[in-house]
Design goal:
262 residues, alpha/beta, Rossmann fold, six-stranded mixed sheet, four-stranded antiparallel sheet, 10 strands, globular, binds adenosine-5'-triphosphate, P-loop_NTPase, ATP-binding
Length: 262
């Protein structure tokens, strides 16, 4: 089966069409006067459709702020953010909420599942709330992709941490969002469960054509991505395609060493 997402992914040859999210000269400052902190300092970035992008950098470098601004969870001080063809900077709250609901999936460190609902009910909850009917064929595919077929009637307490996060991944994928943002999605998992979840995120990019942006501290997690963006002091200072865990670790060590000598 060819999905709309995979068509776009393979059909795009660059330019506007292939970009799922775009930031231009984005500045985010908190506070004022002496206590002003510039969390993002004129950031330009294009997030390619059908790619898995990891955002890395030292603590306080602006990773979460960048993700929150790209996802319309936080406002920018100046600059523009586009999601697909829509400029979200300047959208009113109601429109922004609607756009987030319709176009964006989120996976957080805490799985945020409702304990009284079973796995399937948790997966379809956002669509139920939005009054949208899940596409049964797509839902089956998502459930298969994240390896939850035998667990759909289980409540979260009857699932391991890794399985719970797979439910959260399926919940994000089920509505076929244009882009999924993950903030340390494997931060609460042991390395084996983390590897499983990262493997499913990778598969959802390769097999379902999903676009994913993930903030992480972990070079192993970043190695599942197609591209790693490195932030330092609110600026993008480097990027790496086809990353390996060792390559990412070396790059992080470089930044640490430079940070200490500057
Ligand atoms: N609500 C806020 N009010 C004031 N300053 C903030 C706020 N949120 C973030 N900051 C500051 O902005 C900078 C970037 O923070 P951010 O959380 O984006 O960094 P990060 O790279 O995600 O860090 P970590 O890896 O520790 O989560 C930091 O200096 C932080 O202290």
């Amino acid at each position: 089966m060819t999905t709309a997402m995979t068509e776009t992914r393979h059909g795009g040859t660059g330019g506007h069409e292939a970009v799922a999210a775009r930031a231009r000269k984005v500045v985010k400052a908190y506070g004022a006067g002496e206590t002003r902190v510039v969390a993002l300092d004129e950031v330009d970035v294009d997030i390619r459709r059908g790619q898995f992008t990891a955002i890395m950098g030292p603590s306080g470098s602006g990773k979460s702020t960048l993700m929150h601004c790209l996802a319309g969870l936080d406002t920018v001080t100046s600059g523009q953010i586009h999601l697909d063809d829509v400029e979200i900077t300047g959208l009113k709250d109601k429109k922004l909420t609607q756009l987030r609901r319709d176009r964006i999936g989120f996976i957080f460190q805490a799985f945020n599942l409702l304990p009284t609902l079973n796995a399937l009910e948790n997966i379809t909850l956002p669509m139920d709330i939005a009054g949208r009917k899940p596409d049964a064929q797509w839902l089956n595919r998502v459930v298969e992709t994240v390896g939850l077929a035998g667990r759909l009637k289980h409540r979260p307490t009857e699932l391991s941490g890794g399985q719970q996060q797979r439910v959260a991944v399926a919940r994000a994928l089920a509505a076929r969002p244009q882009i999924i943002f993950g903030d340390e999605p494997t931060g609460n998992l042991d390395s084996r469960a983390g590897a499983e979840v990262l493997g499913f995120l990778r598969r959802s990019v390769d097999e379902l054509g999903q676009t994913i942006v993930m903030v992480t501290h972990d070079p192993v997690a970043a190695s599942y991505a197609d591209r790693v963006i490195f932030l330092a002091d609110g600026r993008i200072v480097d990027e790496m395609y086809g990353p390996t865990a060792d390559g990412v670790l070396d790059r992080m060590k470089d930044f640490d060493a430079r940070g200490r000598t500057s």
